[in-house]
Design a protein that fits this description.
About 40% of the residues lie in helices and about 15% in strands. It is α/β, with parallel strands linked by helices. It has two domains: about 25-130 and about 285-290, Rossmann fold; about 135-275, Isopropylmalate Dehydrogenase, CATH 3.40.718. The protein has an eleven-stranded mixed β-sheet with strand order 3-2-1-4-11-10-5-6-9-7-8, with helices on both faces.
């Protein structure tokens, strides 16, 4: 059974992540530049993903510090490629250079601040920017919900405008489709499901749906504005009289701003026991953006999603031009 076919009763906890990880093991591993893996969690996460055959890691950071972490925690780095740099800022800069040189298909955050990594990624002359806005997607495995839920953007764009939201949606839709989950149902969230000038996010939601109709956003089925309840619960949508392909069955949730998205993701994590894998899109390569609080499974799922996305990009690049 594919992930996209999951319906009915909620699956066993973490089943959706296990399917993603299994799918990633069926494609060639991606060379992954791991930035400053200088604590147990980040180093173990990279090595575990390598042992599972998902990635081929290049560890970028102070070699002596990486070796000390490995020694202290019984981790085997004897077969790992290590690029020695003096500190975390240098690691971020060198990691981006390696990607620009074509030596890495993915970036993976280690034990440095997200801002430090993203400064190197977004540098105008030396970074990894593309024409697309950079955004973050949480891939949520909610034990009580049948579908894998994508929440975006809850980590990068604080108050995105209409053009930024178009890119945020397109990034998430492309990820959903290219990792093999099918055509996504996309809900553009607000506090209410009616358009009102008093709540600007409802107007933007309506505009984004029209943009989708006109081909400015492709690959997904959009509806909005929708409140959270009638986006994911069929009965709530029925009671409100909302009839669409998306209402009550959304798979991608587009939040009005970072604050709303961050609170939604953390509510699901701490109140329902959900796992929240994370990936940054819109740069030249996917970026696995992990948290110190992430479990090993969550880190592995983040790697799996990024590897599946990178493999899809390989396949697209291999198709000869007409």
């Amino acid at each position: 059974m594919s992930i996209a076919q999951m319906s009915g009763p909620a699956p066993a906890p973490h089943a959706k992540y296990e399917l993603l990880i299994a799918k990633a093991k069926d494609v060639p591993p991606a060379t992954t530049v791991v930035v400053h893996p200088c604590d147990e969690t980040s180093l173990r996460g990279a090595l575990d993903a390598a042992a599972a055959g998902i990635i081929r890691p290049i560890l970028v950071g102070p070699k002596a510090k990486i070796a000390a972490v490995a020694r202290d925690h019984g981790l085997d780095i004897s077969s790992a490629t290590i690029v020695d740099v003096p500190h975390s800022e240098a690691a971020a800069l060198r990691a981006v250079e390696l990607v620009r040189e074509g030596r890495g298909e993915l970036l993976m955050k280690g034990s440095l601040h997200t801002d430090e990594l993203m400064r190197a990624v977004t540098a105008s002359a030396t970074g990894l920017r593309t024409a697309r806005r950079i955004s973050h997607v949480f891939i949520m495995d909610v034990p009580t919900h049948p579908d894998t839920l994508f929440i975006t953007d809850a980590a990068i764009n604080i108050f995105p405008d209409l053009d930024a939201k178009r890119d945020i949606i397109q990034n998430a839709v492309d990820l959903f489709t290219q990792v093999g989950l099918g055509t996504p149902r996309v809900a553009i969230l607000s506090a209410v499901e009616t358009v009102t000038s008093k709540i600007p996010s409802t107007i933007e939601a309506a505009a984004l749906c029209k943009m989708s109709e006109r081909g400015q956003i492709t690959g997904g089925v959009l509806d909005g504005p929708l409140a959270f309840d009638n986006a994911i619960d069929p009965e709530a949508a029925r009671i409100k009289g909302i009839r669409s392909e998306v209402a009550g069955r959304a798979q991608i949730l587009i939040v009005p701003d970072l604050e709303a998205g961050n609170m939604l993701a953390k509510n699901l994590t701490f109140l329902t026991g959900a796992d929240a894998a994370g990936i940054v899109l819109g740069a030249r390569v996917p970026i696995v953006l992990t948290s110190r609080a992430d479990s090993v499974r969550t880190r592995m799922a983040s790697c799996a999603v990024a590897v599946l996305y990178a493999n899809a990009k390989r396949s697209i690049a291999a198709v000869p031009a007409a």
